[in-house]
Design brief:
Elements: H1 14-36, H2 46-65, H3 75-97
Length: 99
Amino acid sequence: MFGLFGGAPDDATAGAQIVWLFTLVITLAIIGRALLSWFQLDPSSPIAQVLNSITDPILEPFRRIVPRLGMLDISPMVAIIVIQIASRAIQDLLIEQGI
């Protein structure tokens, strides 16, 4: 079984491992951006710019669909769940196909 941070299984193909790694990087970037949103970080800082450039294309569609809960933006959590489900389906397909 694939875990969020547990690594790809031993029987994972190269394609499945690449998908797992990509998913890990995106998930960590979204978590990092969410955590940094709790602090007064200058938006022009290099860390904020990198995280925004990585996560904006992913989070913006979710922000249009997922309503805010008062001051709480749950779109990062929804995005991570959707990304994890899609990633798992793609990885299973790649392993099944031997890619």
